[in-house]
Amino acid sequence: MLQFVAYILLLSCEFFTLCETRTECTLAVGRLICKQDPRYHQRVTVEMLDKDTFVDAKMNANGTDMTGNFQIFGCASDPIGPPDPYIKIQTKCNAKKRKTIKTKVMHVFIPEVANFSDIYLD
């Protein structure tokens, strides 16, 4: 029921422009590390998404370099409050099948930099 009310509120905001949205941009940096096999942190796609109620919105995607370093920039807006950016990585590090790793949401926006430091994939 609560989700239905939230959905109606979002529709109202979209169609009647009752809510004012503000676009926020994030620059995130970090390094992926696969201790078992460094090949698994090279050229890995790193996605930045905005956590939303129903479907998370893709802000951008970029790849890591040969040492696992990444830098990604993306912008988003939410009808209520600031965006909730997080990083999503799919890897086969220490796994037979591809696994997904999601970071915690970081409310860090330009001009500050969201530094995820080392993200261990093992």
TrEMBL record:
One Gene Ontology term, aspect cellular component: cell surface
Source organism per UniProt: Romanomermis culicivorax
Protein name: Uncharacterized protein
Keywords recorded for this protein, A-Z: Signal
One Pfam family matching this protein: TTR-52
Source domain of life: Eukaryota
InterPro entries reported in the protein's UniProt record: Transthyretin-like (IPR001534), Transthyretin-like_sf (IPR038479)
Signal sequence segment: 1-21
